[in-house]
Every structure is written in structure tokens, then in C-alpha cells.
Hints:
Layout: E1 3-8, H1 20-23, H2 28-41, E2 45-50, H3 54-64, E3 70-74, H4 83-92, E4 95-100, E5 122-125, H5 130-140
Parallel strand pairs: 1-2, 1-3, 3-4, 4-5
Helix pairs in contact: 3-4
The structure holds 1,3,4-trihydroxy-5-OXO-cyclohexanecarboxylic acid (DQA).
Amino acid sequence: xxxxxxxxxxxxxxxxxxxxxxxxxxxxxxxxxxxxxxxxxxxxxxxxxxxxxxxxxxxxxxxxxxxxxxxxxxxxxxxxxxxxxxxxxxxxxxxxxxxxxxxxxxxxxxxxxxxxxxxxxxxxxxxxxxxxxxxxxxxxx
Length: 141
Ligand code: DQA
């Protein structure tokens, strides 16, 4: 595992400001920096992309087939709606880990279904931003 795509979906650019009682005060940049720093210590390169657009996320996953060894993805709201992201992860043939900052199973019913977790090797949710570092650990380990 030498190269990892770190993907974050819609509204995650607002982390640190958005619904801080649920998502905390850590910003997306803090998360990206922490993941990159931890990865560098393991000799792993991380490319990060955040997009609010489903098609951008799908394309990033399809392109990753050519260069990445694994994916850490928080599809955010698309988790619960996106057959396209499901298909992209499956089609990429890459090991992916799904991360959610909040415990989606303790929230509204519509967040209880993930269309994407089934094509990931695992899902980490409810452990806050630490979930991203645990996903890195799991992928590289
Ligand atoms: C989230 C959970 C999703 O249900 C929600 O739409 C998000 C963030 C999380 O990280 O907890 O935007 O993926």
C-alpha cells in the first residue's frame, strides 16, 4: 500500500463550522494534514479530494484504478443515496474503507442504510475524526 486516495463528499468542507455538536471542531484541512502526516511516517502518499458533486467523486474513484492502492472515503450524504459511487468503488477493484465521523446508526433512520459500505472492506463510524487515522492503519496494515 503505497498510494491512497482520501475522498470526502458533500458539505465536509464545512467541518469545524457545521453542526459542531455532531461533527466537532476539527476542520477538513486538519484531518487531511493528520492523515498525510501519519501516512508519510509509513512511506505512503495520500492524494486528497473533497467535492460536493457526485460525478467528481465517481471520476476520482475510477481514475484511482490507474494509480492508487486503496481508498479512504467519507461519501457523506451520498452514502445513503449513491448507486454510482457504489458502482465506482466496486469497479475500481481497490480496497476501500468507509469512514463516518458521526455514528450514523444513532441518527435519523435515512442514515442507517449505506449503499457504499457493502463494496468496502469495512466501515468505521462514530469514532470522530480518529476514524480516518484508523482507516489508514487498517489499509496499510
Ligand atoms: C457523515 C454522515 C452522513 O450521514 C452525513 O450526511 C454527512 C457526514 C459523517 O461523517 O458522519 O455529511 O458522513
